[in-house]
Fold this protein.
Amino acid sequence: MKIMIVDDAMIVRKSIERFIKQTKLEIVAEANNGKVAVELFQKHLPDIVTLDITMPELDGIGALAQMLAIKPSAKIIMISALNSKNTVVKAVNLGAYAYLLKPWKEEDLAEILNKIMGASR
């Protein structure tokens, strides 16, 4: 399965990347803002996306909606420091598969990824 990592903080992208490299997932793209993320999403059509919410150009909520319009079967995992109930509800209502709070725990991301990969078999 293909995955794309989206976060405006390079340190977060690298942290997720290090974790993903321990899995069977193929990292096909990384982006540091929502606008670039949507462009790369359309080009690579990943199965899974880790997506920050607070980013320049286009926030994660806007990117989420556009990505799911392109590929409704994509599993979008929101990873954000925003702990607002409204934001979480909005993301889930738009179709986010899961929502992790920063700082995220490897075991939480592993559990989500295992559910996604298990469901695709």
Notes: Residues 2-112 form a domain with the Rossmann fold fold (CATH 3.40.50.2300). The beta strands are 2-6, 26-31, 48-51, 75-80, 98-101.
